[in-house]
């Protein structure tokens, strides 16, 4: 074997597994993020009776979170790119944990609006920080799988919440359900600050694993002003995908409990199991969607073909949810919704990888923040539409028709804007003269 071939082989060999410990920390943070976020979704049918809000007022509460989440994403992405993932992530989880516990003080629609707004500001930092961390710690061929793993935390959190919330609320009241995540958040924060460093600065990372992490072709070392990112159609491809499909996830997250309770007359004690099944299916979809794209690449497919093929499979899994309002059996409805949520999470594992496919590491969090802003803004529109539709007709039929169609439309937009998923053109720094 020639020295060049040996060097290439050594660079390609993983050489260690520390990066997967980092991925586990991202999984834990995302799980906590979604436990905090989902508590209201589980309690919503029952708080609606106690607080006395209407369908439209509940839509306003959800919109407050989404509006703040959108604003926070714009700020969080740029701040994390500037100050780094270690400090940025720590600040984000501190803010959202305090806001989550602050829900216990709310006693009116206005109180919940304020609490949800502050929660949205803090939680906006999770995905820009996590995706930038993946871009720092994983080569391109492993990123979709790593994103799929940590993104599964959104489903784990959504499973833990319906398991935990009814028990806590029945024993100590609904306020206690909003308070109980503080210890988890504090433990994660301490662990992150003590153990996390970037790969170049981490004392426990082997030279072989660092070489594996850096095995992709060199990226341009550039600092790009936030607004200049929008000059590239690659950014708009990501923005379109998030704007069109994120509202569907918001719909599932905040209205699933209400849908099941109203359509199948489920009590607080009985609503947990169907929601757990749905989110378990979503967990499988999150990991499988990321694995599928990586599998296609290992077969020799280009990143463009692999990503879009995996996204198409996921989009087709969502489409049958259009029929969910036509079935009378609870578990058939759960199966259709679970398949759709699995499709969404597999879709997200690939969509969230697009910024690191097409942009330098230094700009990834900013691009993710812009796309997340678009997704949250679209989610606000979906929340208003859902509340108005239910208030006027009481029917979910049109709502699920939109949800089932969104992903194929989004995939078409991505393909038209980024037909080859080629990297956005940035100039490499010029070597010094002389």
TrEMBL record:
Transmembrane recorded as keyword: yes
Gene3D superfamilies assigned to the protein according to its UniProt record, in alphabetical order: MFS general substrate transporter like domains
One Pfam family, short name: MFS_1
PROSITE patterns, per the entry: MFS
Limits of the Major facilitator superfamily (MFS) profile domain: 22-422
InterPro entries: MFS, MFS_dom, MFS_Na/Anion_cotransporter, MFS_trans_sf
Transmembrane segments: 58-80, 87-106, 143-165, 171-195, 235-256, 276-294, 306-324, 330-352, 364-385, 397-418
Keywords: Membrane, Transmembrane, Transmembrane helix
Subcellular location, record wording: Membrane
Membrane topology: Multi-pass membrane protein
Keyword hit for Membrane: yes
Family the UniProt entry places it in: Belongs to the major facilitator superfamily. Phthalate permease family.
Protein name: MFS transporter
Source species: Pseudoxanthomonas kaohsiungensis
């Amino acid at each position: 074997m020639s020295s060049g071939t040996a060097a290439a082989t050594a660079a390609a060999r993983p050489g260690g597994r520390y990066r997967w410990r980092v991925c586990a920390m991202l999984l834990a943070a995302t799980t906590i993020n979604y436990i905090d976020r989902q508590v209201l979704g589980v309690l919503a049918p029952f708080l609606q009776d106690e607080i006395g809000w209407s369908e439209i007022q509940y839509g306003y509460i959800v919109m407050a979170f989404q509006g703040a989440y959108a604003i926070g994403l714009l700020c969080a992405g740029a701040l994390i790119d500037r100050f780094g993932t270690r400090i940025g992530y720590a600040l984000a989880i501190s803010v959202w944990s305090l806001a989550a516990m602050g829900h216990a003080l709310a006693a009116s629609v206005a109180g919940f609006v304020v609490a949800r707004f502050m929660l949205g500001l803090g939680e906006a930092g999770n995905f820009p920080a996590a995706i930038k961390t993946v871009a720092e710690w994983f080569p391109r061929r492993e990123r979709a799988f790593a994103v799929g793993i940590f993104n599964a935390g959104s489903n784990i959190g959504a499973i833990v919440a319906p398991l935990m919330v009814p028990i806590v609320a029945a024993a100590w009241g609904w306020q206690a359900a909003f308070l109980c995540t503080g210890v988890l958040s504090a433990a994660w924060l301490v662990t992150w600050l003590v153990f996390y460093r970037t790969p170049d600065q981490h004392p426990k990372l082997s030279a072989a694993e660092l070489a594996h992490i850096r095995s992709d072709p060199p990226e341009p070392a550039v600092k790009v002003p936030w607004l200049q990112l929008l000059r590239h159609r690659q950014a708009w491809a990501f923005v379109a995908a998030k704007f069109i499909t994120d509202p569907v996830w918001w719909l599932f997250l905040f209205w699933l409990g209400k849908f099941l309770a109203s359509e199948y007359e489920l009590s607080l004690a009985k609503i947990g199991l169907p929601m757990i099944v749905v989110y378990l299916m979503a967990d499988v979809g999150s990991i499988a969607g990321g694995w599928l794209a990586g599998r296609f690449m290992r077969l020799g497919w280009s990143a463009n073909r692999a990503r879009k093929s995996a996204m198409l499979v996921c989009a087709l899994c969502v489409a049958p949810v259009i029929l969910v309002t036509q079935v009378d059996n609870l578990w058939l409805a759960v199966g259709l919704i679970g398949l759709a949520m699995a499709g969404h999470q597999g879709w997200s594992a690939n969509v969230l990888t697009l910024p690191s496919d097409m942009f330098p590491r230094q700009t990834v969090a900013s691009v993710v923040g812009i796309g997340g802003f678009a997704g949250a803004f679209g989610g606000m529109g979906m929340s208003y539409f859902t509340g108005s539709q239910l208030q006027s007709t009481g029917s979910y039929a049109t709502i699920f028709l939109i949800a089932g169609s969104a992903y194929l439309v989004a995939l078409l937009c991505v393909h038209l804007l980024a037909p080859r998923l080629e990297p956005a053109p940035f100039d490499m720094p010029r070597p010094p003269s002389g």
